[in-house]
Amino acid sequence: MESIDLTVLRNLRDWRVAGHRALLATVVKTWGSSPRPIGAMMALRADGHAVGSVSGGCIEDDLIQRYANADSALNSVSAFTEVVRYGVSADEAHRFGLPCGGTLELLLEFNPQHEALDTLVHKLESGMLMRRTVSCANGQVVLKSSDASEPLHFDGKQLACTLGPEYRMLLIGAGILAEYLSTMAVFNGFAVTVCDPRVEYLNAWSVAGVKTVTEMPDDAVVTFRPDRRSCIVALSHDPKLDDLALLEALHSSAFYIGAIGSLRNSASRRDRMITHFGETHASLERLHSPVGVYIGSKTPAEIAVSVMAEIIAVKNGLAPSSTTRTASCDAIQPA
Questions:
Q1: Where are the transmembrane segments (predicted)?
Q2: Cα–Cα dist 254/195, whole Å
Q3: Where are the alpha helices (DSSP H) in 23-89?
Q4: Residue 217, helix vs strand vs coil
């Protein structure tokens, strides 16, 4: 399952290439509670077809009613962009299903040029991080490659947002926990690769849409080429496999690196890496081990929920506290 941003932009590109009138709606500001974050996008075709989301549904319905009918502004629009705001009053917040006090502002881009959309889609498909800047006055779009994700910026005259390739996950070990975790990751928009040189484990693999490789784990990490939208989790329970991957991953730019194991096993791994492989306490600060947040996990499926929750938290800029993460790790994770 690819990222929702890429799905929205690809559909919008295809509609415009086919000659359909369409708009791109982007959440540019929020106040109070908001059902969707800044940067969330929705593409709307003049006949009512829509992809993506900017709210829980009611705002999408209003946009369709306002812009997708024979007499709508979209079919006769002469402007390039429009700023609309929802939830200003308590009545509007209730009408549109916004949380108490919630307000959001959207930038609507009418009939974006398909050439710029096509270039952007191809860049994202090739794994590039792109900064897209839109002029509200004339709708002109400037695309630049970027080395780091920057916050969305909107000042009423220009919208600048960073768009990137889908998030990726590399799992070491093709056991039952990896099956549950990869399934959850796919549904959260991650492209998942599972590495296990033990062919008998991969022969039993049953999760569709996941790439499998049989390289040694350190080679798999190198081939994977981790970036800031990548995470690596060691799940094999075999130090010969997990440690190889972790030693390589710790020196990459992956946003999350984790390893299964009890408190005792995790401490032994850290001592082993410092004593024999030249790691330091500082270099191991990036390692989430024991992996996952405490939810009282008892089964592989529950542990996978715990791990996925921590990965998403880190991806979203939150850092689960070490006390919360390790409170029950001896109980929920194999020694």
A1: none
A2: 16
A3: 58-67, 73-76
A4: helix
For residues 88-95, average pLDDT: 61
In this structure, are strands 130-135 and 158-163 parallel, antiparallel, or unpaired?
antiparallel
Whether the Cβ atoms of residue 286 and residue 233 lie closer than 8 Å to each other: no
Question: What pLDDT, in 10s, does the model give residues 166-220?
Answer: 789 999 999 999 999 999 999 888 999 999 999 999 998 989 889 999 999 999 9
**CA–CA distance, 68 with 72 (Å, rounded to integer):** 6
Q: How far apart are CA 192 and CA 185, in angstroms?
A: 7
Give the whole-angstrom CA distance, residue 6 versus residue 189. Answer: 10
Give the Cα separation of 332 and 293 in Å (integer).
10
Q: In what helix (H) or strand (E) does residue 257 lie, and over which residues does it extend?
A: strand 256-259
Give dist(CA 247, CA 274) in Å, integer. Answer: 11
Buried b (16+ CB within 10 A) or exposed e, 9-33: bbbbbbbbeeeebbbbbbbbebeee
CB burial of residue 118 (10 Å; 0-12, 13-18, 19+): middle
Angle between helices 300-315 and 176-187 (to 10 degrees): 40
Instruction: Give all domains of the chain, ordered by start, each with its CATH number.
Output: 4-163 (no CATH), 167-332 (3.40.50.720)
User: What's the pLDDT score for residue 205?
Assistant: 92
Helix, strand, coil share of the chain (percent; to 5): 35, 25, 40
pLDDT one-digit tens code per residue, 36-57: 789 999 999 999 999 999 986 7
